[in-house]
Amino acid sequence: GRGRAGGFPRAPSGACGEPRAEGAMAGAVLDPVARAAAARRLFNFIIMANVCLYLEAGAVPAMLVTLADTFHMSKGQQGLLGGIVYLAISVGGPFAGYSFKKFHQKKVLGYSLIVNNALLLCMAMTPDHWSFSSWIFIVFRGALGLTQCFLCVYSPIWIDEFAPSGHRTSWMSFSQAAVPIGIMAGYAMSSVVMWTTKDLGCVVLHCWRWPFLLQGLLEIPFVVGLWMTPANLVCVRPPHRTYSKAAKIGGAHSPTPSSLMSSIPSTPGSAFRDARDRESMESGSVRLTDGSIAAAVGAGDAPAGSADILGIAAHQQGTRGAFGAQGEAGGGVMLPPLRS
Description:
It contains eleven helices and seven strands. It has a three-stranded antiparallel sheet, with no helix packed on it. A two-stranded antiparallel sheet has the order 2-3. 32% of the residues are buried. Mean pLDDT is 73; it is low at 1-15, 19-29, 240-269 and 282-340. The protein is mostly helical. Helix 5 (75-102) runs parallel beside helix 7 (133-162) and helix 6 (105-124) packs antiparallel against helix 7 (133-162).
């Protein structure tokens, strides 16, 4: 939308469009120690959710022979059953990205987990006596892949926003490792279920249905936990890469570095970095990205009559940059758009 006076964008009321906390609550949310502890707990939550979400990716191959016999699948149907979930994840990635950008991020993620849980129940209860039962089972697994892509797409974005600067790489590594761990756990779970019930038989339901039911039960705490988590710990602030028009700084109404930083929306994940950037600006240290220009503007350092040079550090999704201002001889400073 249009920026406010001076060309700077109007900061949203809070993460995901929710009202920003005031007073003591705001201080508690933005406190660096509390932020780090909350981010670490939610990171553990994301890792376990990723492991749980991909249990079926190991369960289906482990029980493929049993499933093929139950549903009378041809070789082509068996191959389609094994690959359709990954095709759905690939196709659903752009749709997931659009949904996170367009709608409430926490709700999108929560609804995707709810639908995922419902599809697991549908797979577990698929009738096996119809002539088209095999195709129903394949369609359910393809739809399951569409729901898995939401957490797959969002995890790296969330980690880049909320992870401590010294742990961002390791957190990303753990997040990626959670997927194969979940697949291996699915293999193990299905193998144990099929092995223990080989001679004893299963209670009420066919043995191959139990791994899907168990995964659905394991996902329930993650669905409940996500809805109980404050939105400002889940949502990632949108990047502000461009500005509607250049802003002139000068005269009696010149914005201060602190006021310039306040125009960039903050989240608990970025509060620590914003505080560091604000301290750097107020001390006069400037680092510009669009060239080899570097300046340190302190008290008394600027020649008389020359324009000051300001640097505004801005943390953005996936990148960390700064945009600089070039002085004009006759008046003020022009702020060009941020370069990615």
